[in-house]
Design goal:
The chain is built from ten helices and 14 strands. Keywords: ATP-binding, Nucleotide-binding, Transport.
Length: 312
């Protein structure tokens, strides 16, 4: 089933076009990473999905139902976590969730069990402190619990990990992985490693246009350049090999950083062997010869037209 379908979405603020012909679909039970640099248009897209902004043109469907601006009926199917969630600081997480459950009209007989289940899911069941003293990560986790109260089909999180330290980020990613068992997740971010860890599908937004969307593993294989990394004892040896390889037609691109060379080839096996042979024949000692696994970073940089850093 298609949980979300975005078709030809365009959004203008005055004469500024912020989104142009954005189309993507999200199948059920997947984690969809919505990637883009600051200002790419991620939050605007999410607000359009939530019916909080009016699209200039295009259509959005949640579980087959059209999203209509100003009539947010489809939001009963969506849980939303904004980038900076706000809470009542004087409450404990349980008090706060119980209040939200009552306000959202959850049947009285299920409220307590649902809140306990969600506090357990986000690792806050034994926390009886006031929310005012929570870390950012704890607030994000409570926000996820709140967004899941009504058993949504789609959970949308706006940059849930961006302001967190590595431990806080891992906790959120673990929670999202657990959420995926029951709910489709769309989360926006510019942290590529988070996407690499948990996402099945991605979309990359660049200056308001969707430059890539699809299954992450397939895209990585399809787009990431075939690269071999060579490391030498010193920069002089790396320079020597760099000059040697400049004459080789089969080498697509060479990128050097000090003692390391990143060499892009067409045929990893054949060209790799040829490279090694050349270096050995020139009697240049080599420290490391490594086939670089395709990474989301190289894919991202390629589609937005930036030069990737040398992988470590
Ligand atoms: N209400 C608005 N009025 C005018 N321009 C807006 C409005 N909201 C957003 N924009 C502009 O739209 C562009 C996209 O903003 P958006 O917040 O969607 O980007 P983003 O990808 O979420 O970025 P970030 O990662 O910084 O949150 C920006 O240039 C922003 O200034």
């Amino acid at each position: 089933m298609r949980v979300l379908e975005v078709k030809g979405l365009r959004k203008q603020f005055g004469d500024q076009t912020v989104l142009e012909d954005v189309s993507f679909t999200i199948p059920s039970q997947c984690i969809f990473g919505f990637l883009g640099q600051n200002g790419a248009g991620k939050t605007t897209t999410m607000k359009l999905i939530l019916g909080l902004l009016k699209a200039t043109s295009g259509e959005i469907f949640v579980c087959g139902e059209p999203v209509v601006y100003g009539n947010t009926k489809t939001n009963r199917l969506i849980g939303y976590l904004p980038d900076v969630p706000e809470f009542y600081a004087y409450m404990t997480p349980r008090e706060y969730l119980l209040l939200c459950a009552e306000v959202t009209g959850l049947p009285k007989h299920v409220i307590k069990d649902r809140c306990d289940e969600l506090l357990d899911l986000v690792g806050l069941s034994n926390v009886n402190r006031r929310i005012g003293g929570f870390s950012r990560g704890m607030k994000q986790r409570l926000g996820i619990a709140q967004a899941l109260l009504n058993n949504p089909t789609l959970l949308i999180c706006d940059e849930p990990t961006s302001a967190l330290d590595p431990v806080g980020r891992k906790e959120i990613l673990d929670v999202l992985l657990k959420v995926k068992e029951q709910t489709t997740v769309l989360f926006s971010t510019h942290i590529l490693s988070d996407v690499e860890q948990i996402c099945d599908q991605i979309a990359i937004l660049h200056e308001g246009k969707l430059v890539l969307t699809g299954d992450l593993l397939t895209l990585k294989k399809q787009f990431a350049p075939r690269q071999i990394q060579l490391e030498f004892k010193d920069a002089a040896h790396a320079n020597e090999v760099h000059s040697l390889l400049l004459n080789e037609a089969r080498i697509q691109k060479i990128n050097q950083q000090a003692t390391m060379l990143n060499v892009e080839v067409n045929d990893l096996e054949g060209d790799g062997q040829h490279l090694l042979k050349l270096i050995l024949e020139a009697r240049i000692p080599i420290y490391q010869f490594k086939v670089v696994e395709p990474s989301l970073e190289s894919l991202f940089m390629e589609v937005i037209g930036c030069e990737p850093m040398l992988p470590l």
